[in-house]
Amino acid sequence: MDRRKSLKAMIAGTVTSGFMFSGCLTDGESETTGLQPVAPTPGYGRTPEEASRDREIMSGHFFNQHEMATITVLADLIIPKDEHSGSASEAGVPDFIEFIVKDIPSYQLPLRGGLMWIDQESRKRFNLDFKDLEAARQKEILDDIAYPDEVKPEFTHGARFFSNLRNLVATGFFTSKMGIEDLGYVGNTPNVWDGVPEDVLKAHGLAYDEKILKQSIKPEERNQIMDWEGYDL
Description:
The protein has 233 residues and is mostly helical. It has helices at residues 3-10, 48-58, 65-78, 93-103, 108-126, 135-143, 156-174, 177-183, 198-203, 210-215. It has ten helices and no strands.
């Protein structure tokens, strides 16, 4: 099973949070990410209270620029672009995660602490922040925290953070327009049903009534209202 299929299967699982760290900004970094808040559509499917909360959530930022850049790199390592669809960042996953941490504040410290942890681990190994490493070295760090059942004790915190982030990335991607198209999910889409396949009917010794088939089951007329006045039983 490849990575994308694994994430499709995993998306039904519970998003868990593991540990708490205190967050802080690196020297010289701004509190804001530079992203422009997206205003919710006024009144569309929202109560006044919900619309007010939307405005409150959209009015500010939690992650700083460095953190958002790191989240973007991690998201695209988790769900990279492939022959079927774009990457997690192209589906808007980093902005989804920014929204989630403001909507559900319990995510804030675990995610910020995890981003601190992965930068510290990266500097310890390669003297660079994680986002600035070449892909092979980024994956080397992730290999140590990507499999919770096999992780070494010194990487427990990193593994909890990465599992948490991976679940959020998968949720954000596979609930986006791009991700839904990648899943092939069509939802409650009108279609034409041709009935039970002939081989299934035969296997059960059944068959459709020819008169009903000719008079009633006509996909090309599915939007017309049937006139039963002249129907002879």
